[in-house]
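re: that complex we talked abt at group meeting.

here r the seqs, copy pasted straight from the sheet so there may be weird spacing, ignore it
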Amino acid sequence: MLKIEKGDVFLFRPLRKPFKPSEVKKRRIESRLQKVQPDKDALKQSVNPALDYNIELMKKLFAETSDFVVRQFHFGSNREIRVGLVFIDGLVDQTSISESIFKPFMMQTLEGDSELLPEDPYQMILNWLVTFYSIKEEVEIGKLLDLLLAGFAILFIDGSEKALAIEVKGWDARSIEEPAAESFVRGPREGFTETLRTNTALIRRRIRTPNIRFDMLQVGTVTKTDICIVYIDGLVNPKLVTEVNNRLQRIDTDSILESGYIEDFIRDNYRTPFSLLDRTERPDKVAGSLLEGRVAIMVDTTPFVLIAPAIFSEFLQSPEDYYESHDYIRPFRWIALLLTLTLPSFYVALTSFHQEMIPTSLALSMAVGRAGVPFPAVVEAFLMEVTFDFLREAGTRMPRSVGQAVGVVGALVLGQAAVAASIVSPLMVIIVALTAIASFLIPNYSASIAIRFLRYPMLLLAGTFGLLGIFWGLMFLLLHLSSLRSFGIPYLYPISPSVPGEWKDVFYRAPWWAMDKRPLLFRSPNERRQAKGQRPEPPVKNGGDEGSGKQKGD
Amino acid sequence: MGIEQGKISNRQALLLICNSILASMILISPALLTQEAGQDAWISILIAGVLGVLMGILVISLGLRFPQKNLVEYSIELLGPWLGKAVCIIFALFFLYLTAYLIDSFSALLITETKPETPIVVLNTFLIILVAYGVYLGLEVFSRVNEIIFPIFIVVFLFIFCLAVPEMDFEQLKPIFTHPPSHILWGSLILFSFYAEGAFILMLIPSLRESSGVRKIAGTVSVILTVVMLIDVVGLIALFGSQETARMAFPSFELAKTVHLGGFLERIESLVVGIWVGSVSLKIMAFYYVSVLTFAEVFNLKDYRPLVLPYAIILVVLSIIGWENTTHINIFLSRYYPLLAVTVLAGLTLLLYLVFVGRKSGNKGGKVK
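got the structure back, here u go
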C-alpha cells in the first residue's frame, strides 16, 4: 500500500498567486468603499452623547430609505430620559422588539418608582430594562452600522457615549425542507436553508461535540456576506484549515451572492470542466464529510454548502449509499459514467470505421435502419445529442406546468417522428436515450454536466479516428484528471495514485464496520474511526433449531 | 537540485519501467525473436531476462550512489563538465531517436492494420499531441495514469490470451534446440535492447519518494517482463507456428484477431489498438520526458517545459523521415538497433559506474570530488 509521508510538500499547497500584502489590500478596499459609503469619517467616529446628533447621522447615512425605522421616545417616571431606537424593518422580529424593548421601557417605568430615577440611565437600561438575551455594547458608528444591517436594533441613549445593539434578528425564511436536487428514498429529509444560523444548527444537531468549530468571516465589501468555515478540531488537519482560511481571505470582491462565487475564487484550477469542490444541500452529507476530516464552507443566503477538498470518485457517491446497503449500485454508476462519456461515440466509431466488430445479424438490421438516413453517423449523433441537451435544459428551466409540455414535444422529436422522417435511425434513438438515462445515474449534478459536455469532443474524435480516437480522448481525459488537485489532494485519489486499501468506498461501499479508518489523504491527525473487528458474527454453536447446521454469514 | 519537483512512489516507478519496456516489446519483438531463434525463442527470452536483471542491478547501483542527484549532475561530477555533458547529450539524443522510432512503428501498425488510407503525418501528429500534453503535465501525472493503464493492459492481454488458448497447439514448440546458439544469443540481444531502455530511470532516481526498496525494482521488473514475454511468445508459436509468426509484422496483434467468443465478441483488434494507444503513449511520454529533462539539465534551464513544443515538432519530422516502411523498421530493429542500444545505454551506464569505482578506489578515504 502506498504510504504517504507526513511532510509531503504537495499537500494542501497554496494557490500559485501570492497573497497581496495586507496593507495594499486594505487601502484598495477602502478606496473602493469610498464610492459606496462616502462618509468614511462619519463611520470612524464614536457615538456622540447628544442623541439628536446620532439619529441625524443615521438618517443621513440611510438617506431615509423606506425600510429604515427610527423610533424616539422618553421614559422614566418623569419622562426625562430620551432614547432612540433604530432598526431595519424586515430584518428584525417585531414581537421581540415590542416585547423586550417597548413594553419594559414604557410600561414598567410608568409605575412611578422614584428609585428608578437614575444617575446613569445607560446602566439602568442595560441591567434592568432590556429583556433580551443577546446585547452588544458598541462605541463606533461604523460597527453599529454593520450590526444594524445584520438585523440588530440599535438603542441610542441621550447622554451616553455607548450604544446598545440588541440582537432581535428575525426575518421571513424558508422552513427546512427536503432538498429538491438531492432526493432520497432512505435518509433524513432535512435540507439546508438560506439562513446561516439555521444551517449551523442543523450540523450541530448531528455532531454533538464541543470540538466542532464555526469560524466566521465576512467577504464582499458591499454585500458583507457571512461565511462560515466548519470543521471538527482534532479530526481535521490544521494545515487544511489554514489553507482554506488563506484562500478565503485572499478574495477581494464586492459581492458574494452564492457559494458558487466562492468556488470560482478558491478552486485550484479553473481550466477544467470538473468541479474541484463538492457542494451539497444536505446536512447529513456535510456532517459525514466533516467526520472524514474535511472542511465545509457555509455561505449565508444560500443553502449550498461547499466541501473541500473534493475527489473525483465522490461525485459517484450518494449519501444514501451509506444508509441503504445496496452495494451493487456503485459499480453501476461507474459503468454509467463510462456509457455517458463514450456510448454515442462508440456507436459512431463502430458504424463508421469498425463494422467488422458488429455481429452480422445486428449489422444487417442496423443497415436497414440507416437505409434512408441522409447523414453520416457522426452528424446523426450530434443532431440527436444536441436535441437532447436542448430538451433537458428547457425542461429544467421551465415552470413545472410547461415542463410537461416540453416532455411531450421531446418524446415526439427524439422518438417516432424523427425516425419516421428518416432523419435518424431507430438505433440512434435508443443510444441517445440510454446515454441520457446513464447520465442521470451520476448523483452529482455538476459532475454530470461535465461528463455530458465531454461527450461532444469524444463524438468528434470518434467520427474522425474511430476507436483510436475514443481511446486517445480517454487517455487525454485521464491525464487531465490526474493533473487536477483539490486543495493539493490528487483529484483521482485513491484510483491514481492508487491506494487499493481505500477502494472499499470507491468501487463499492463496504459495510460500516469495515471502514474503520478515515480516508488517508485528508491527513486527519486522528486516523481511526472506530474499533476493529466489529463484524457481526452469528453464534457458532447452538445454531438453533433451523435444521441446517450452517447459518448464512453476514 | 533537479528541475523536476514531482515525486513518485516506488510502485509507480516499477510500473512505469515495466510499461516503458513492455509496451513496444510485446508488439514488435516476437516476430524478430522467431526470425532468429524459431521455436527456441523462449530460450532467448530466459537469457535476456538474466541480462535484464544484470542491467537493472547496474543501473540501480549507479543511481543509488547518488540518490539525491540525477544523471546529469553526477556525470558532470564524475567526468568533468565537458565530457559529462557530452555523455548526457548522447543519452538524451538516443531517447529522442527512440521516441521517434516508437511513434513511427506505432503509426506503421495503425496503417497496416486498421487505417490504410490515413496519411502517416496525421497519425504521428495525433499521437504526439497526446504525448506532449502528458510530458507538459509532468512526471507525477503520467506515472499516475500509468498506474491505471498498465494493470488494465496486462489484464486485457491475459484475457485475450486466455480466449485464444483453445486454438493453440503446443506440439509446435518441438523440436527444442534446433537453432544454433549464436542465433539464440542474437535473439536475446534483441530482447535485451528493449530491457536496456529501462536505463531512462537514471534520470528519475532523485524523484523517487523513498530510496529504501529501490533495489528490488530491478529483479521485479525482469521477472514480470520475462513471464509476460514467455506467455506471449510461447502462445504465439503454439498458435501460429514459429515460421508464420516470424513472417508477421505484429504477431501479438494478430493474436487478437483470432479471438471470438459467443458469436458476438470477434475482431476485437481495434479495441486492442485502443489499449495500446494508452500503453505506448505512456512509454513514449516517459522517454520524451527523460530526453527533454536531460537537455534542460544539461543547458541549465529552470524548467523543461519550454522545450516540449519544439521537441514535438522535431519528433513529427524525425518520425516521418527516419524510416520508410515496416520492413525498414524491422531490419533496423533486428540488425542495428540492439548494438546501438547496448552501446549507448548499457555502455554509458557501465562507463559511469566504472569511473565511479575507479575514483573511489583512487582517492580512498580522501575527499570525494
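couple things i noticed - Confidence is low (pLDDT under 50) at residues 1-10, 547-554 of chain A. The first strand of chain A starts at residue 68 and ends at 75.
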